[in-house]
C-alpha cells in the first residue's frame, strides 16, 4: 500500500470521527462501521484488521490495569530555544487541540498487576516529532525505571526530529539512547512497541533498542521516506519494505502483534521477565 495515500485516507477518516458522524469508512477495505463498533474493537477494523491511529491516553487505557496510571513530568512542555518564527503559537495550538502539554505521555502503571514505566507518543501533536521536551520526558522516564528497577515500555510513533528546534532536537537521539542503555545495564527489561508511523530520529535511537521489539500490523517503520531513499541510492525499492511485516521477515522486529492482543502479550513478557529475575 502507498503510505502517503494511506495517510490521506486515514486523516479523512479521523476527521469523520471528530465530527461525530455515525458511520466511519475503513481506509483499507472501505467497510463502514459505527464509532461504537470501532471502540469495542480498540479502533481496529473488524473486517480487515486495519489499525486506526489512537491517542496516547487511549492507548494506555487499552493496555494498563484500570486506574493504575500515574503521570510523570506532566507539566513539562516544549519551549522555543531557537526563537523559531511562529513556533510558540504552534505549540499552544497543539496543546489546546490535543489536551496534551507535549507529544509524549509518560508515567507508571500496572499490566496484570506488574508495575511498569510507560511512555506513549501521540502523533496528533506535531506528528509526535522529538524535540527537547519529548527527549527529556523519555529520558526521565528511563531514569525513573532504572532507579526503581522497573520494566520500561515505550509506544513509539513519530515523524522524526522537530525541525523548529534544529540541532537541539537531534541531541535527543543520543540522550534517549544513553538513558535506555543505563536502564538495561542492571538487567532491567525494555519493550519497544512500534506503531504507525515510527520514522526518523526516533527509529534511529531508542525505538530500535528494545530487548523485545513489537510492532502493530501495517505500521510504517523506517528512517527516511521511500522516495528519499530511492532518489539517494538510485534503486527501486521492494513493495512494502518499510512495513512491520516486512521488517519482521528480515529480523528487525521480534513480533507483529494486533492491538487486540497487545495487553496479553505484554503481560506474558512481564511474567517471563519476573520469573527470570527470581531465579
UniProtKB/TrEMBL annotation:
It catalyses: N(6)-carboxybiotinyl-L-lysyl-[protein] + acetyl-CoA = N(6)-biotinyl-L-lysyl-[protein] + malonyl-CoA. The keyword Lipid biosynthesis applies. Binds 1 zinc ion per subunit. Its EC number is 2.1.3.15. GO terms for molecular function: acetyl-CoA carboxylase activity; ATP binding; carboxyl- or carbamoyltransferase activity; zinc ion binding. Its main location: cytoplasm. GO terms for cellular component: acetyl-CoA carboxylase complex. Keywords: ATP-binding, Cytoplasm, Fatty acid biosynthesis, Fatty acid metabolism, Ligase, Lipid biosynthesis, Lipid metabolism, Metal-binding, Nucleotide-binding, Transferase, Zinc, Zinc-finger. It comes from the Bacteria. Signal peptide: none annotated. Pathway: Lipid metabolism; malonyl-CoA biosynthesis; malonyl-CoA from acetyl-CoA: step 1/1. Zn(2+) binds at residues 26, 29, 45, 47. It is found in: Cytoplasm. The keyword RNA-binding does not apply. Residues 22-279 form the CoA carboxyltransferase N-terminal domain. Pfam families: Carboxyl_trans. Its cofactor is Zn(2+). InterPro entries: AcCoA_carboxyl_beta, Acetyl_CoA_COase_Trfase_b_su, ClpP/crotonase-like_dom_sf, COA_CT_N. Component of the acetyl coenzyme A carboxylase (ACC) complex. Biotin carboxylase (BC) catalyzes the carboxylation of biotin on its carrier protein (BCCP) and then the CO(2) group is transferred by the transcarboxylase to acetyl-CoA to form malonyl-CoA. Acetyl-CoA carboxylase is a heterohexamer composed of biotin carboxyl carrier protein (AccB), biotin carboxylase (AccC) and two subunits each of ACCase subunit alpha (AccA) and ACCase subunit beta (AccD). Belongs to the AccD/PCCB family. This is Acetyl-coenzyme A carboxylase carboxyl transferase subunit beta. It comes from Anaerotruncus colihominis. The gene is accD.
